[in-house]
Amino acid sequence: MPKTVKDAQSGATTLNPSKVNALLDVITHGSGDGLLTLRELKATGSHPFSNSTRQRKIRNNEYPKPIKISPQMCLWKAGDIRLWRQDPTGYKVVATEGKG
Fold first, then answer.
1. How many Å apart are CA 57 and CA 49, to the nearest integer?
2. Could you tell me the pTM of the whole model?
3. Which of 12, 21, 43, 88 has its C-alpha lying 20 to 30 A from 27's C-alpha?
């Protein structure tokens, strides 16, 4: 479980800076096999928009599609996020054979 810090002003729980740096390292230099939660994406700046914008971008293949592991939990592949971060405005999901 990642270490968290509670923001004094907003009361929101955030990841501590060393955890954020470790996540950024996974995104930028990792094998691409790592999985990231929405909370981790937001903490690293890899999700700079609202949830509705994220859904639209996923639908339009402009943001990586998550892996749904339960009705309330999605994870993103670090390698997919790395590709998106390299060119957020030019990113397009490449269609693969078979769905699943």
1. 10
2. 0.70
3. 12
C-alpha distance across the termini of the chain, in Å:
28
Is residue 96 in a domain? Answer: no
> H-type helices in 1-100, by residue range?
17-29, 38-43, 51-59, 78-86
- Position 64 in a domain: yes
Number of domains in the chain: 1
Task: Examine residue 99 and state whether it is found in any structural domain, yes or no.
Answer: no
What is the domain range of residue 73? 4-86
The tens digit of pLDDT for each residue in 2-53 reads: 444 444 454 445 667 777 777 777 777 766 678 999 998 998 888 899 999 9
Binning the chain into helix, strand and coil, the percentages to the nearest 5 are: 35, 15, 45
